[in-house]
Every structure is written in structure tokens, then in C-alpha cells.
Amino acid sequence: MKCLRVAVAWLLVGIPLGWGVARSVQKALPLFGVVRPPLRAPATNAVPSVPAVDKPGR
Asked: How far is C-alpha 36 from the chain's CA centre?
């Protein structure tokens, strides 16, 4: 039972701590000249969206 309590305590502390460290590293990357890749690649054949124009008299 004590082992389970220790494991739960490690999870409760370790997950937020790891998340905070990961966020700090991500924010520090530009300081060292490291460029992060985009989350997803831009579409190469995307058609730009053009807003519809209302015609007068309709």
C-alpha cells in the first residue's frame, strides 16, 4: 500500500513538473537560435478564400 502511495505522489508531482520544464525549454529555444518546425506543414495546393461580395439589388 505504501508503494502505491509513493507512486501516486510521484505522478502528482512529476507530471506538472515535466510539463513546466518542457514549456520552459520550448520558450528558451529561440534564445539559442533553434527554430522549431511548424506544428503541421502548410498546404501547397490551398486556394485562398475570397469573401463573398453582396450584389446591390438582391
From this structure: 11
